[in-house]
Design a protein that fits this description.
186 residues; alpha+beta; two-stranded antiparallel ribbon; 8 strands; 30% helix; globular
Length: 186
């Protein structure tokens, strides 16, 4: 597999089979940037998904990214979910610790899976309750899986989706813990 279309097609088929619905699809081509690619191009595709029954987009979302350059084909899946804002969690450290604990248990070794927390707000909104927070669980499809072809990509995609389901079910906001997320362990 050496182009993004078949790779994205495999990802999409397995994501949709897992109960997710395509919300949007974007493809871009980037040409030489500040001499960095020196005559090359980078093609990217982004698929955005929501769970079946969540047409308002209020629940978790799943994103699929595929990049194709002259040298490689790379892909990643991200699970994006709401997180408690600073009015409920005094710092990012606890939130990140819980998220990392979930990923450590759910995502198999050998699949890079970084976690990030994002806080955002809009002008005119004030106070900690005006801050929206999200947590992003990202899992990269290893290059060896891409080189292994469709069967290997499908196996890794299914493994990632299963891990994300475990993360999604384990990510709860427990009021008995002052609104801190819990990773489901007692």
């Amino acid at each position: 597999m050496d182009t993004l279309e078949p790779f994205l097609s495999v990802l999409r088929r397995d994501i949709e089979a897992g109960g997710w619905v395509l919300s949007g699809l974007q493809k871009t081509t980037s040409y030489e940037y500040d001499g960095a690619w020196e005559g090359g191009t980078l093609r990217s595709a982004y698929g955005f998904f929501h769970l079946v029954g969540d047409e308002n987009g209020e629940g978790p979302s799943l994103e699929a990214f595929v990049d194709e350059s002259h040298a490689s084909l790379d892909g990643a899946l991200s699970l994006v979910m709401k997180a408690p804002g600073p009015e409920r969690v005094p710092g990012v450290a606890d939130l990140l610790a819980v998220a990392l604990s979930l990923v450590e248990r759910a995502v198999p070794e050998g699949i890079p899976a970084p976690v990030s927390v994002t806080y955002s707000s809009s002008p005119g909104r004030t106070g900690p309750e005006a801050v929206d927070a999200t947590v992003r669980f990202k899992a990269r499809v290893p290059g060896s899986a891409v080189q292994g072809g469709e069967r290997t990509i499908r196996a890794v995609t299914c493994t990632i989706l299963k891990a994300f389901e475990e993360v999604r079910k384990g990510w709860t906001l427990d009021d008995s813990l002052d609104g801190r997320p819990t990773d489901g362990t007692p």
